[in-house]
Amino acid sequence: MSEQKTLSGFYEQNHDQPDHLFRTLQKLKRADFAKAKESFKEFKFGLRRYIVREEDVLFPPWEEKTGMSEGGPTSVIRAEHRQIWRQLEAIHGKVADQNPDSDQEERVLHPASIN
Question: What is the pTM of this model?
């Protein structure tokens, strides 16, 4: 299997599943909070794993090959990852409090999402 297909498969799999889990959170948080909470836990774990793989596995060889690290695209993406993590923590706090009113935080995290 080529490196391109491996990376492509990785990104497709790691984008589709979290999106499904996120939509499940949104759909069930006011009807079945226990299932919504479980979906969020899986979503957060999967997204965290994705971010770690990207930053620890994908970025270093790319930065080495291109010579771009500080101020380059990976720096921008790392900053975006920190913003994503802050939103995840805000939603996590609401989930921990069994508070379904996380629509605003969800829109910041996923602007195209529909509640």
Answer: 0.75
